[in-house]
Amino acid sequence: MEATVTHLTLEELEAALDHLRRAPKDEGVVELIVCRPDVGRREVLEEAEFDIEKGLIGDNWHVRGSSKTPDGSAHPEMQINIMNSRVTALVAQEKERWPLAGDQLYIDMNLGRENLPPGSHLAIGSVVLEVSPLPHTGCKKFVQRFGAEAMQFVNSPLGKQLCLRGINARIIQSGTIKVGQTARKI
């Protein structure tokens, strides 16, 4: 999955902004579901179960913990990571590299703060997610896999406003999500 790919320049990334901004605002398609059973492992799923307490079933979110909680336990506001599939396609360049971004859901939808402010709800399949106020900014692995300029692009002031690195969410209604289903703002 980590084949050698030339990272895009900031100029190449910025040239795609109009395409990224045209992502659907009210409804988008789930293009990929990824489970992270262990550090560094990714399993691409066609269908996944999401649980209010455990997160995506089979994912390591609940056992991995977080440096953002006082006791190091899993952060409830960072249960599910969602990335706009247009941004993923841009930085990853090849669909088989999308899981390297580290998110669980890849949706063709505008995830920007103006469109989906914290507290917004998304219905996907029988699942309902609530957008977290905590920013999703990426990590050093994102830089290694997609380049320093990709990180600079997604974390620029405009990138943060558009949530190009993605958003965090928590599950408020358990259920199942399948690839190809529609994610709707509710």
Explain briefly what this protein structure is.
The model has no long low-confidence stretch (mean pLDDT 93). The protein has helices spanning 10-14, 17-21, 61-64, 85-92, 140-146, 148-154, 157-161, and strands at 27-35, 43-45, 47-51, 55-56, 80-84, 105-108, 121-124, 127-135, 167-173, 175-178, 182-185.
Describe this structure in words.
There is one protein chain. The chain has a single domain (10-185), classed as M1 Pyruvate Kinase, Domain 3 (Beta Barrel). The protein has seven helices and eleven strands. The chain has helices at residues 10-14, 17-21, 61-64, 85-92, 140-146, 148-154, 157-161, and strands at 27-35, 43-45, 47-51, 55-56, 80-84, 105-108, 121-124, 127-135, 167-173, 175-178, 182-185. Strand 1 (27-35) and strand 2 form a beta hairpin. The model has no long low-confidence stretch (mean pLDDT 93).
